[in-house]
Design brief:
globular; single chain; about 75% helix; about 300 residues; mainly alpha
Length: about 300
């Protein structure tokens, strides 16, 4: 049972991320991607800090506390922060506004592919199962892009951005960049969070995100008033913030306690949940072909590992 729990945590993190992206995409249009990143990190930080301090007081001198942080682990957690709340999450929201949540999550969920390519670059061997998974991933993504493109030109479909237009291609490029950063985040959490408990690791991640996200936003020209939301809007999002905070803890646990190749593949299954959420909310017309190719892509991601 213990060995299965990291996999369950990875799946929960994938569900929470898909749900959060669906909820935050229209919010980021009213404010900015940085406002969402600041809100998520600002909500989670005091909870994780309290968790870490309670553990410190209850078990003084125990391993995994703030005293076990090193500059190396902080550096890796900084990489993880850039690859999540600090930057990559914002990029995903920008991509979702251009090409839709399911498609952007499917492309951004390609980070197991970068893991496989990195292993090959390091001299590792690609088994036939992994080769088949790679073909499934590439086929699935290409098919999803094609289906979204044809749907955008159908008069009976909802208005959408053509993926072969300039805006659509920019959305694809942004989602691909996010997928690379997500891969870096996995290694950052693995190496930066292994020596400390979940509360400490996430306290560092969220603290860094509160610095990195608004700094990048202001450097890119986002006005300060679009980085902080009104209290009324913050309260209305408390339910999804709570779900995601549990997801942050589950993600760190999965990446530090489970088999890295397995949990990284499972955590990339957000597109499956995103399609179900989009269909249930009426944001995407039902398409058996799109569901099939999302499942094909996710199945290929699992086979890669």
């Amino acid at each position: 049972m213990i060995s299965v729990f990291p996999s369950f945590c990875a799946l929960y993190a994938a569900f929470g991320y898909a749900l959060g992206t669906s909820v935050y995409t229209p919010v980021s249009q009213r404010y900015s991607w940085a406002a969402v990143s600041v809100l998520r990190a600002g909500f989670a930080l005091p909870l994780f800090l309290g968790w870490a301090l309670v553990l410190e007081l209850a078990h003084p001198g125990s391993a995994g506390g703030f005293s076990d942080l090193t500059w190396k682990s902080i550096g890796w957690l900084a990489v993880a922060s850039v690859g999540s709340q600090g930057c990559a999450d914002g990029l995903l929201l920008l991509a979702s506004r251009r090409i839709g949540v399911p498609t952007s999550l499917t492309i951004a969920g390609l980070y197991p592919l970068w893991t496989a390519l990195w292993l090959l670059f390091q001299g590792g061997a690609l088994r036939w199962v992994q080769g088949a998974g790679l073909a499934m991933v590439l086929t699935g993504v290409a098919a999803l892009i094609y289906l979204s493109e044809t749907q955008a030109h159908q008069p009976e479909s909802k208005p959408g951005v053509s993926l072969l237009s300039f805006g659509g291609l920019v959305g694809i490029a942004i989602a691909l960049l996010a997928s690379i950063l997500f891969a870096l985040a996995i290694f950052g959490i693995r190496y930066g969070g292994s020596g400390v408990n979940i509360g400490v690791a996430n306290t560092v991640r969220m603290s860094l995100a509160l610095v990195i996200a608004p700094s990048l936003a202001m450097l890119s020209g986002v006005k300060r008033e679009r980085i902080v939301m009104p209290l009324k809007d913050m309260k209305s999002l408390a339910w999804i913030l709570s779900i995601e905070t549990v997801g942050f803890a589950a993600y760190v646990y999965a990446m530090t306690k489970g088999s890295l190749v397995t949990v990284s593949a499972l955590s990339s299954l957000s597109p499956v949940f995103a399609v179900l959420i989009a269909l249930s909310l009426g944001r995407e017309p039902f398409s058996l072909r799109k569901v099939f190719f999302v499942l094909l892509t996710c199945g290929g991601a699992i086979m890669l590992n």
